Structures are given as C-alpha cells and as structure tokens.
Amino acid sequence: MSGASTAAYLARRAAQKERVRILYRRALKDTLNWAVHRHLFYQDASDLREKFEAHKHVEDLDTIDKMIAEGEATYNKWRHPDPYIVPWAPGGSKFTRNPVPPSGIEIVYDYGRENND
Fold it and tell me: How many other CB atoms sit within 10 Å of the CB of residue 67?
C-alpha cells in the first residue's frame, strides 16, 4: 500500500468506527425508551451488545459500509415513536418553566425587612 492509499484506508476505517459508535449509542438509548423496567433494559442492552460484537471481526470496508447501512435502517424502522425526554431538557415538560430573569431585574431577598430610616 502506498502512503495515500493507507491514509485513505485509515480515514475510511475511522469514519466507519465513528458511525458504528454513534449507531450503538443511539440504539442503546432507544432501548431504554422501550424497556419499562431496568431489569428488562439490561437484558435488551446485553442482546444489543452481542449483535454488535458478532460482527466485530469483519475487515472488508464495503461489507462494513453495507452492515452499517442495514443497522441504521433497522434502527430507524424500530425507533420509539414517543421517546422519553428528561423533563428539564429541551423538549421536556419542564423546560424553561422557570426561566432565568431578564438582565436588569434585581431580585431582593430581604423583602419586608427594609431599614426604616
């Protein structure tokens, strides 16, 4: 392999590893949306990990790209329609419920205990 083809190979492998990592994290977080209890989630997470580990030995770049595309399609097909969102996160039920006061407004904490001069 020449230097240019080695660099291209390494760049493609790095991009594939990143896509697999992102796919695994998204699928794992989505598994938590489907599981009602933690003990169910642990089994599902273990099964998901086994699916990823089963194809760990594949070295052909085109096969890896095909497997990633299939995995992303499967993930998109089985994605939870109403994912859990932490209440205080963007999109959550408590997001910006108590927003920060605008600048220029002073909060007086000793209300009612003013000095009577």
Answer: 15
Other Cβ atoms closer than 10 A to 31: 19
Predicted confidence at residue 1, as pLDDT, reads 57
Q: What is the domain partition of the chain in residue ranges?
A: 1-116
Residues 80, 33 contacting (CB under 8 angstroms):
yes
- Dist. CA 29–CA 110, nearest whole Å: 46
Q: What is the pLDDT of residues 69-78, one digit of tens each?
A: 999 999 999 9
**Residue positions counted in the chain:** 117
Nearest to 45 by CA among 35, 55, 36: 35
Helices (H) and strands (E) in the chain, counts: 3, 0
Using an 8 Å Cβ cutoff, are 61 and 9 in contact?
A: yes
The residue whose two tokens read 């599902």 is: 44
| pLDDT reading at 17 higher than 70 | yes
